[in-house]
Specification:
The complex is a heterodimer of chains A (240) and B (276). Chain A has 240 residues and is of the alpha/beta class. Chain A has helices at residues 40-47, 72-77, 94-104, 110-123, 139-151, 169-185, 196-202, 220-225, 230-239; strands at residues 2-11, 14-24, 29-33, 55-60, 63-64, 79-82, 157-161, 188-192, 205-210, 213-218. In chain A, helix 3 (94-104) packs across helix 4, helix 3 (94-104) packs parallel to helix 5 and helix 5 (139-151) runs parallel beside helix 6. Classes of the chains: A alpha/beta (240), B mainly alpha (276).
Chain lengths: 240, 276
């Protein structure tokens, strides 16, 4: 479903991605772990072109989205993204946050968008917050809203950029539960995370990134219990 | 104003006139003399009201003109426009128009920066004089129109910087959230960035509007009979140094205080999303 071919990214002189070749299959859940500065977030952000890759290709559903002919806005509609800092729209209510994009892009009319939003809100147990503003919600609630805001677009793949890193510890669980329920439904997902237990539980495949390269990849059990590469071992020793 | 009221004022005036002649007015009589000669005689209060209406008209249209032009200037100054990148496509024709469009945009962006520097760096009075005697020197144009153009062009430079400040204050993540949902750059700007930017720019914007109302007094230089000129004109008739200007000043206060109230109401309404 998503191929990256020799993906490279420079920030001025800083070589952040040094050629990442990956293939994420439909329905696959990929967790990306690694030390900070390893390029995992940049890799994720390149996939929906929030960062323009310096070179290399990204093929999404058979289309090269790095080519100038590609309408990136159309592609992004099929890629939901969840940010570390939630990035809800503070001037909009919860309902408006969820329906803004489907309505603006004329994918749904007002009634359809509202119905969809209500269905999703019920699903994450936040229907009573439908007319609240983001600032009135806790971090965990905001992140759950951010997830269903992305889901309201009916994406083919969900990208999670450290979705629980900005949360108070007691709120991590509620957000992870929502992501897990998505995983169970068979959503294709790429998750950058520091929650190793979560990665172990949810992911089909774990990528360990360091210094702009995927150093090691494999089944969660193998990576966490029997890492082959020295850098992976060091990293896991430090955090587990 | 009913004629009876006038005659009542006139009657009072006739009563104190001997004292005026002999220059033996007491305190209250002096005050009445000032009010009578500067406000009531020859229906002079009408001149203040005419001046007030000119000031309000010029201010209102200048503010609108300034905000529209200022918003355009601010958007042109955005880093997205300044550092816009030219992505080649396969079609030579599309490439050609893309190249032309981007070049024009970049040129406009440069011009916007230059414009803001120029207008903020030179006195408004000078700009008014140049527009009045230079640009419209040989054409007959309503002075109000000249006033709106001069004040609007000036205000736009300040508004542009205020809005730019507002745009910068919106966290980068907001733009990313909008774009990641598939909204175009313009849709993101419209629906997400600009509403938040305007909200945080509102207090500074209110200041600018109030400053603009006061600065329209400069237009008295080009013989536009707005509030200051109206007061000045009456001073030249009555030789009262204080009263006409104080009356004009009070009317300015009415305008600015009303505007302050309106803006703080608007601020309250927009801050609905700030409540905890």
């Amino acid at each position: 479903m998503i191929y990256t071919k020799n993906l490279e990214k420079y920030f001025n002189n800083l070589h952040v991605l040094k050629g990442v070749n990956q293939h994420v299959k439909k329905g696959e859940k990929v967790a990306i772990i690694g030390p900070s500065g390893s390029g995992k977030s940049t890799f994720l952000r390149c996939i929906n072109l929030l960062e323009q890759p310096t070179s290399g290709q990204i093929i999404f559903e058979g289309e090269d989205i790095t080519s100038a002919k590609c309408d990136i806005n159309k592609v992004r509609q099929k890629m939901g993204m969840v940010f570390q800092q939630f990035n809800l729209f503070p001037h909009k209510t919860v309902l408006e946050n969820i329906t803004l994009a489907p309505k603006t892009l004329k994918l749904m009319n007002k009634d359809e968008a509202n119905a969809k939003a209500e269905e999703l809100l019920k699903r994450v147990g936040l229907i009573d917050k439908i007319n609240a503003y983001p600032r009135q919600l806790s971090g965990g609630q905001q992140q759950r809203i951010a997830i269903i805001r992305a889901l309201a677009m009916n994406p083919a793949v969900m990208l999670f950029d450290e979705p629980t890193s900005a949360l108070d510890p007691e709120m991590v669980g509620e957000v992870l539960d929502v992501i897990k329920s998505l995983a169970v439904e068979g959503m294709t997902m790429i998750i950058v995370t520091h929650e190793m237990g979560f990665a172990k539980e949810v992911a089909d495949r774990v990528l360990f990134m360091d210094e702009g390269l995927v150093v090691e990849e494999g089944k969660p059990y193998d990576i966490f219990n029997n890492p082959q590469v020295e850098r992976t071992k060091n990293f896991l020793n430090k955090i587990l | 104003m009913p004629t009876q009221a006038i005659s009542y004022f006139d009657k009072l005036w006739l009563q104190i006139e001997p004292a005026v002649q002999s220059n033996t007015l007491n305190f209250w009589q002096t005050i009445y003399k000032e009010i009578y000669s500067n406000l009531i005689k020859d229906d002079r209060w009408l001149q203040y009201l005419n001046g007030l209406s000119v000031t309000i008209k010029v201010s209102f249209f200048s503010i609108i003109f300034g905000v529209v032009l200022g918003l355009i200037l601010a958007l042109l100054r955005l880093p997205e426009v300044k550092d816009i990148k030219y992505r080649k496509t396969n079609s030579a024709l599309v490439n050609f128009f893309k190249y032309i469009g981007i070049s024009i945009l970049k040129l406009l962006s440069k011009f916007a920066g230059f414009y803001i520097q120029l207008y903020r760096g030179t006195p408004l009075l000078l700009q008014v004089l140049i527009i009045n005697f230079g640009i419209f020197g040989t054409v007959r144009v309503d002075k109000i129109v000249i006033g709106v153009i001069a004040c609007g062009l000036n205000s736009a430079a300040y508004v542009a910087e205020i809005i730019r400040g507002g745009l910068i204050s919106v966290p980068h993540g907001q733009k990313e959230a909008g774009r990641s949902l598939g909204l175009s750059a313009i849709q993101t700007l419209n629906k997400i960035i600009i509403p938040q930017a305007l909200k945080s720019a509102l207090p500074a914007m209110g200041n600018e509007f109030i400053a603009l109302i006061k600065e329209t007094s400069i237009l008295s230089y080009i013989a536009l009979t707005e509030l200051t000129k109206a007061g000045d004109y009456i001073r030249s008739r009555t030789y009262s140094a204080f009263t006409p200007y104080i009356i004009s000043g009070l009317l300015y206060l009415v305008c600015t205080l009303t505007l302050t109230k309106l803006i703080s109401k608007l601020e309250k309404r927009l801050s609905a999303s700030d409540l905890h």
